[in-house]
Amino acid sequence: MKKPKEVTCYRHQLPRQAEQLRRTPANPGDDDARWRERECFYVSVRDRIANDGSRDRYAIALGPFRTHAEALDQVEAVRTKAEEVDPRAWFYGYGTCKLADGSRLGILNKVMNFEP
What we know:
It is a single chain. The protein is of the alpha+beta class. The chain has a domain at 37-116. It has 3 helices and 3 strands. It has helices spanning 15-23, 68-73, 75-85; strands at residues 40-47, 57-65, 93-99. The protein has a 3-stranded antiparallel β-sheet.
C-alpha cells in the first residue's frame, strides 16, 4: 500500500480578505466607461471528453464581470440554466476564468438576460 502524500501547505482566506477581494475590481481605478477594455472575468464551462484532457471543450458561458467574486456568484445560476437547455450539462464542469479584455460575451448572456 502506498503511503499517503502529506499536504505541506494549505491556507484558507480569512473572511476579511475574501470580502476585500469581493469588492476589489481586477483593475482598481478604471473609469466605468472603459472597464471592458481591461482584464475581465467570466463563468466558464468545461466538457471533459477524454481522461487525458486532449479533447476537452471549453465555453465562455456568462460575462464579462468586473470582479472574480461577481463571476463566482453566478456559477450556480449558470449550472442551473445550462441543465435546463442542454441534457449533457449534468456532466460538465463549471468555474471561472479571466480574459485579457471584455470583448467576448457569454453564450448564455441572452438566455439569462445578462447585460454587462
